[in-house]
Design goal:
With 353 residues, the protein is of the alpha/beta class. It has two domains: 121 residues, 3-Layer(aba) Sandwich (Rossmann fold); 190 residues, Dihydrodipicolinate Reductase, domain 2. It has ten helices and 15 strands. The strands form two sheets. The chain has a nine-stranded mixed sheet with strand order 14-13-12-11-7-10-9-8-15. A six-stranded parallel sheet has the order 3-2-1-4-5-6, with helices on both faces. α4 packs parallel to α5.
Length: 353
């Protein structure tokens, strides 16, 4: 059954989630929490045990629990769907949902191939359906506050951004299986998992990346894909450089964003919170800095906020943030793949728009 275009006017959005692993649980929780706007209507997962667990957790009847996403999309009158499966399946599943006129939220990376990402962009425009890529770091509240600060010019003109997103790896502990570590399913490793978040947040805060040079390696884990990557970014014609480090072998340490501008420094520490120093360094080396407070609004953390804003967008309500589009997903994938090319060739790669 094709979703009807008058979905937003009355009643609850009927939500379906394809992929009921850990990130799927995040999406299911988001729909379940939006009691005035949405209801978890259907779930799909090839893992029967996980499917039953999530079905019971979110009160989805057995008849609306599916192991084949095609049957779910054909049988259920869904208004909105989340794609939370391994990376290799994102394109075919998102395409099937968009073709049926269903508002579609797809996890990152949106696809593994640029031609597939471009196809989704064109398809969504042709069908006229609402879509989003789940770049959840845009919804970290101090990152949103930093965006406002930069727009006001309170940091002056930024000349350097450094992002470090690293942890011990998605499996075991987070992922339900080791698919993240297999090239067939993931397409890449830490770069496509953590690094693509960092690429998006750099462009969100600073602007388009002009070129990238990278080292992408497997340093410690006995896996098929990379477990660490570093990227050097140029934002030309803006006079700003960037550095990204992402990894799956990291002990506890700094995780977050450093921003340096002509009139101050802003540290966005995911563990300890923000630190803002306002002021300048004069040519003779003297410093004139003073601590300032970054006004970070209180409220839900990034995953619940992401889901709440997505649901509001689908319902036609106002949102507090410009949501990450399929075009954003395409651009970030282009840069991630360029970084892989740079690592293979040893050359800096200019990003073609």
């Amino acid at each position: 059954m094709v979703a009807q275009k008058g979905w937003a006017k009355m009643g609850l959005l009927k939500a379906g989630v394809i992929g009921a692993g850990s990130i799927g649980d995040v999406h299911l929780s988001g729909y379940a929490s939006a009691k005035r706007d949405a209801v978890v209507w259907a779930i799909c997962d090839t893992n029967l045990k996980r499917l039953e667990e999530m079905g019971e957790k979110y009160g989805v009847p057995s008849v609306r629990r599916y192991r084949d996403y095609r049957r779910m999309l054909e049988n259920e009158p869904l208004d909105v769907v989340s794609i939370c499966t391994p990376n290799v399946y994102h394109f075919e599943q998102a395409r099937a949902a968009i073709e049926r006129g269903i508002a579609t939220l797809v996890e990152k990376p949106m696809t593994l191939r640029l031609e597939d990402a471009r196809a989704l962009v064109h398809l969504a425009k042709r069908v006229g359906v609402k879509t989003m890529v789940a770049f959840s770091h845009r919804f970290v509240r101090m990152n949103m506050a930093a965006k406002r600060l930069l727009e006001r010019g309170d940091l002056g003109t930024p000349f350097m951004i450094r992002v470090r997103y690293a942890h011990g790896g998605p499996y075991p502990g987070w992922a339900q299986s080791d698919w993240f570590y297999k090239r067939r399913y993931a397409g890449g490793g830490a770069l496509l998992d953590m690094g693509i978040h960092a690429i998006d947040i750099c462009q969100y805060l600073i602007g388009p990346i002009h070129s990238v040079a990278a080292e992408v390696k497997t340093l410690r884990k006995p896996i098929e894909v990379d477990d660490n990557a570093v990227m050097a970014l140029d934002f030309a014609p803006k006079k700003c450089l960037g550095m990204i480090e992402c990894g799956w072998t990291s002990p506890p340490g700094f995780a977050g964003i450093e921003l340096y501008g002509d009139e101050g420094t802003l540290i966005l520490d995911l563990i300890n919170g923000p630190k803002w120093l306002r002021g300048k360094q004069t040519p003779d080396g003297a410093t004139q800095f003073r601590p300032a407070k970054l006004a970070v609004p209180k409220g839900p953390s990034h995953w619940p906020l992401q889901m709440a804003q997505w649901i509001r967008y689908v319902r036609g309500k106002s949102v507090i943030e410009t949501l990450p589009t399929l075009e954003d997903g395409l651009t970030s994938l282009r840069i991630a793949l360029a970084a892989m090319d740079s690592a293979r060739t040893g050359k800096r790669v200019t990003i073609k728009r």
